[in-house]
Amino acid sequence: MSLHPAFSAFALLLTLPCFAADAPKAEIQHVVDTFQTALKAHDAKSVSSLFLNDNISWYTSLGDASFTSVKARHSEVTTAYKAGTLKQFTDFIGSGKVQVEERFHNVRIDTDGTVASVYFDFDFLADGKIANHGAETWQMIHTPDGWKIAAMLYSSNF
User: Fold this and answer.
1) Number of other CB atoms surrounding residue 136 within 10 Å
2) pLDDT tens digits for 119-150?
3) d(CA 71, CA 54)
């Protein structure tokens, strides 16, 4: 009996955990890709379907220069961060008044297969021009319906 076929079979079995570990990351990457595609298509329903529910945590934090600029024009603004809602975002996306696109760079996905963190740099384009840029993070959870965004935080610099 040759050891070569047995060794080859054993070597293949050793790679199975690697493929299993990659599956959640691939599923999460699909959510990232779907978000970008739906955003560009003004498909508010598809964007909404990627979120756990309508009441997720959603915060924007202005970078120092952007906060200084906003505060100079609006003295009532006292903090660099503000809460938002999924509905506000999908209403904006669904309105179709402005062609939008969000380009992601340096996407990093960390997961244990149950929860995940997605972190990336982004450029947000409105009518083909960069309107703001920053870093964004999603906290995700695996549900019976797949991976869902449970919280979103991002910086905004313009």
Assistant:
1) 20
2) 999 999 999 999 999 999 999 999 999 999 99
3) 30
